[in-house]
Amino acid sequence: MQIRPCFLVAALALAAGGLFAGCPSKSDPYRTAKDSSQALHARLAAVENLADQELLADVAKTAGNYDVCLAAAKKLDEQHREEAQSAFAWVANYSSDPAMRHTAFERLTEQAAFADVVKNTIDPGLRETAFAKLTDQAQLADVAKNAKYVGARRTAAEKLTDPALLADVAKNANGPLARDAAEKRLAELKEQTK
User: Fold this and answer.
1) Are the C-beta atoms of 130 and 105 separated by less than 8 Å?
2) Alpha-carbon distance 95 to 114, whole Å?
3) Contacts of 184 (CB under 8 A, 6+ apart)
4) Measured by CB atoms within 10 angstroms of the end CB, which terminus of the chain is less buried, N or C?
């Protein structure tokens, strides 16, 4: 009797602890979605097959691929809004595909997400659009202190109207342009209240 190679491989795998234990399969869409060695179409199909919101949130946060994160984030419900907004902001900030960046940006609704885009995006057009939507004073102060781009820090300081936050930016901003803009804005506000 001759043993066929496929039976031999299966028998060895079972003896070693399970049929290809650790390898993603069609029966485990979560692991397939997160596995960067899988083809993109397989990962996207796995996301489509995922219904568990906690697992989708994890994929949206950690899949490491813009397409996969965006697909998972689009499926998240209201209870996972923060994770979805974070994933959308990540794609808007760092995807090399302008269309994908804009698609993700269109899904943003939260002030913290707009601030994240202003601070980090590689796309100057998206940064400007996010600035137009950013009104929260605390988020503007965070941008003024921590944005990667000097112009974003300065513009955020110029948009601030809260004297306490302006004083904090004038003291703690990352770079002299934002500190100077905050000091100037603070002086303007003091002059207006005289």
Assistant:
1) yes
2) 16
3) none
4) N
| Long-range contacts from 154-157, C-beta under 8 angstroms, 24+ separation | 154/178, 154/181, 155/131, 156/118, 156/131, 157/181, 157/182, 157/185
Distance CA 107, CA 149 (A): 23
Q: Residue 98 has which token pair? A: 């302008």
Going from the C-alpha of 182 to that of each of 82, 137, 158, the distances in angstroms are 30, 13, 6
**Structure tokens belonging to residue 76:** 């998240």
- For residue 66, how far is the Cα from the chain centroid? 9
pLDDT in tens, the chain (194 residues): 454 444 444 443 333 333 343 444 456 999 999 999 999 999 999 999 999 999 999 999 998 999 999 999 999 999 999 999 999 999 999 999 999 999 999 999 999 999 999 999 999 999 999 999 999 999 999 999 999 999 999 999 999 999 999 999 999 999 899 999 999 999 999 998 88
Residue written as token pair 């399969």: 25
Q: Which residues contact 116 (CB under 8 A, 6 or more apart)?
A: 86, 89, 93
Cα-based distances in Å from 48 to 66, 83, 164: 15, 18, 47
Amino acid identity, residue 126?
A: L
Write down the pTM of the prediction: 0.77
